[in-house]
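hi! just following up on the protien thing from before. the input was this:
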Amino acid sequence: MTINVRVGSEPEEKSNLEIEEADTDNNGEIDVLVGDAARAADGVINVRVSKKEDPEPPPIKIKLNIRKTLEGNLIISSHPDIDIVIEPRMSRIVTFPRDKKTDRVYGIQDRLFTFLAKKGIVKRSEIQSGSAYGSMQALYPPQREKHTFSFLQAVLLNISKFIEEESHYFDIDEQFEKEFEESLTDPDEEESTELGEIPHGEQKGSIRPGYIYSPYGISSIYRYE
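and the predicted 3d structure came back as:
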């Protein structure tokens, strides 16, 4: 909108401050007229006013260990216990156990898909076991032309957030294994003894000198004197 402000000698029927409606072709300018020559064209001070637009938010950056297959799938290896595979053509997310198939793998897979379901990425009813042993999968909605954002980017972003939350447990497991190894290789004084401090006994545990051991325990009735 253009606001024309005239200051100076004006007829009595007009006020000293006059605001007129602007033309739509004035490109958002304000015309300020000063002094007796307010009506002259050369006495106009053009002040350009621009609309204050909200600044665009900075782009979100994520860091994941990803490999791309020849088929176009994405393999995320940032989790120490599972591999997360995204199949864009099938709109599917599949998780596979890593080399060590521990009893906690299922709990990690369940937490991942529960997290994605709460974020609206996958449906709970579509979470199921995969065709490979120990795998778990779920479907996310296919990308359509009417959608204004990338579904694949949304999937990657939420998987990154899940791994970030899980990193706390990674540190605990790593610290536990480190302390356990140090307790075996470099024990403290309370958990270790010097060589010769405990004398060697003639009989240790179930190994008894003079007895012959064989299957079924039958020969245990024979012994050498």
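Confidence is low (pLDDT under 50) at residues 11-24.
The chain has two domains: 4-48, 66-181.
cheers
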